[in-house]
Design goal:
By secondary structure, this protein is α/β, with parallel strands linked by helices. It is built from eleven helices and eight strands. The longest helix is centred in the N-terminal third of the chain and has 18 residues, at 3-20.
Length: 310
């Protein structure tokens, strides 16, 4: 947005920021937060502190201190944003994704040489796992976690030298002791539970209260091809649309587990499918006549749009 465009919506933006940051204890924190939001909206590709401060005409230390040193409950702000979106927009899907942030050095928290789908290669980077609230016209990055590689978890390393090095890096980066290595798909399930589970953010209650149905969970192959991820989604009552490899095995949709003979000794055997599973590629070929195109919107490549504040 240009400065003139930001000036035009400034009252609405200030009201929105006040609602989202209302839980911050100090007025200077709320003011710095609103300034930071304005900085993110300004024109310019780089959204780091110094370029944003130049565009805003302020000292970059003010923005830097708010993000890195000022004590405030960022989880509460995320909850406010997620609840605002769910109350003002239909939520048709929870989209699980991750993003890579390239880094030159090794001092940033949890930076390691790892694969990044964003970069399309293995590189020195951080990985952020996120869950987005999505409908056909808008999306909201509602919750996210910084992935902690095993090389940054001294408790997970058996080599004493490597563990000592990880402890030093953790201390230097200020990583809390409770932040440990956890698989990306588990982080995604944690966030879905935080947003929608009992005692959580109440996002699902807001969606259903507005007349919406339970959203589906969508994910790319990095999550969808994990059987444990799919099983836990099913156990929690979620329907999902995820990418899987063609060689992943499954049973036909019409197949039903059948009871097996019981000889009366020990535990009765669990019901089992009558035949072996086949690959999803074989299933797709066998049901080719039922294939139909599915689109995600009217545009060829729908853009992510943040809805305007009320």
């Amino acid at each position: 947005m240009t400065p003139d465009q930001i000036a035009e919506v400034r009252p609405r933006l200030a009201a929105f920021a006040a609602e989202m940051l209302g839980g911050l204890a100090r007025s200077d924190q709320r003011a710095a937060g609103e300034l930071y939001v304005r900085g993110l909206l300004t024109d310019g590709r780089r959204k780091s502190m110094q370029p944003m401060a130049v565009r805003l005409g302020v000292d970059h230390q003010r923005l830097q201190q708010f993000i890195t040193s000022s004590t405030w409950d960022y989880a509460a702000v995320r909850r406010n944003v997620a609840r605002w979106f769910a109350a003002s927009q239909p939520v048709e899907a929870l989209v699980v994704d991750d993003t890579g942030f390239p880094k030159d050095g090794d001092a940033s928290p949890c930076v390691a040489r790892q694969y990044s789908g964003t970069l399309g290669k293995t590189a020195n980077c951080q990985i952020g796992v996120s869950v987005h609230l999505v409908n056909e016209h808008a999306s909201c990055a509602a919750d996210w976690r910084l992935f902690c590689p095993e090389s940054w978890d001294d408790a997970a390393l058996t080599d004493p030298v490597a563990a000592a090095g990880a402890r030093r890096r953790r201390e230097r980066a200020g990583i809390p002791d409770e932040v440990r290595h956890r698989e990306k798909w588990r982080l995604a399930l944690d966030m879905i539970e935080e947003m929608t589970g009992p005692g959580g953010w109440g996002v699902l209650d807001l969606v259903t209260a507005a007349g919406g149905s339970r959203p589906v969970v969508a994910a790319d192959i990095g999550y969808g091809d994990n059987a444990l991820f799919r099983e836990q989604l099913t156990a929690a009552g979620w329907q999902y649309a995820v990418a899987v490899k063609g060689g992943t095995t499954a049973h036909d949709g019409g197949a039903v587990p059948q009871a097996r003979p019981y000889g009366g000794l020990g535990q009765p055997p669990k019901p089992a499918y009558p035949g072996p599973p086949v690959t999803v590629r074989q299933l797709a070929i066998a049901h080719a006549a039922q294939v139909r195109p599915v689109t995600g919107g009217t545009a060829p490549r729908p853009a992510r749009v943040t809805p305007k504040p009320p």
